[in-house]
Amino acid sequence: KSFKLYKFNFYMPSEIKIVGTSHISKESVREVRESILNFNPDIIALELDRIRFIALTSKKKDKNLKQEIKHFGFRGLILNFIGSWVERRLGEKVKTQPGSEMKEAIRLAIKNKKEIALIDQDIRVTLRKLTKEVRFKEKIRILFDILAYPFIKRKMIRNFSYSLDEVPDQETIERLIKLVKKRYPGVYKVLIYERNKILAKNLYKLMNTKKNVRILAIMGAGHKKEVERLISEWN
Q: How many alpha carbons lie under 13 Å from residue 19 in its C-beta half-sphere?
């Protein structure tokens, strides 16, 4: 009996729970808080890399332009600025800072002495891929859509009827992903398709490296379903 018990414990797989969030949603902050409390994970895995983790946790907010250009490259810096600007504008509408759910996860991990795992690709690699994959016509289309948004937002709201303060349901997520794939194929490939594989691979590796632990993974809701599918397929 003792031998069987020892064998069972040694090979017991890690348990994983994935929480899909919206990076500007107050609902996501609450869900992260409740998931950590109820699931009681040993490891909290975040859709962050080291650079974004430091940016979220650093008290120093002054930005060094030369250092950022060195990190991201000029074109990468422009793409990063556009993405950050859009998130900030949306965050202002719901009075939530972008990445609040990640900050809450980090705060609770430190408070409760949980291990933190960063499972995303280095943002510098992501931005380099974007500058390569996003063609000129697609960049013009992105710029046009940003400028046109104030005039078409009512139509967008009708087509995708969910509150910015909530995490969209799976049907809405899939419709949004299809729209991105069709209208911005380069963005879709780099930010969604390839990163789904990276997130899943890093989580799968974590599950097989750490035995008999509970892992809570926090990532954008658009990644959740495919990451779960890939991990299930590999298992």
A: 26
Average pLDDT over every residue of 180-197: 90
The residues facing 118 across adjacent strands are 46
Angle separating helix axes 26-39 and 100-111, nearest 10 degrees: 30
What DSSP character marks residue 168?
Answer: P
Is the CB of residue 161 less than 8 Å from the CB of residue 114?
no
Q: Where are the beta strands (DSSP E) in the chain?
A: 15-21, 43-46, 115-118, 214-220
Q: Residue 7: pLDDT above 50? A: no
pLDDT in tens, 51-97: 889 988 887 655 554 554 455 454 544 455 445 544 444 434 434 45
Reported pTM? 0.78
Q: In this structure, which amino acid lies at residue 164?
A: L
List Cα–Cα distances, 43 to 90, 91, 228, in angstroms.
Answer: 30, 28, 17
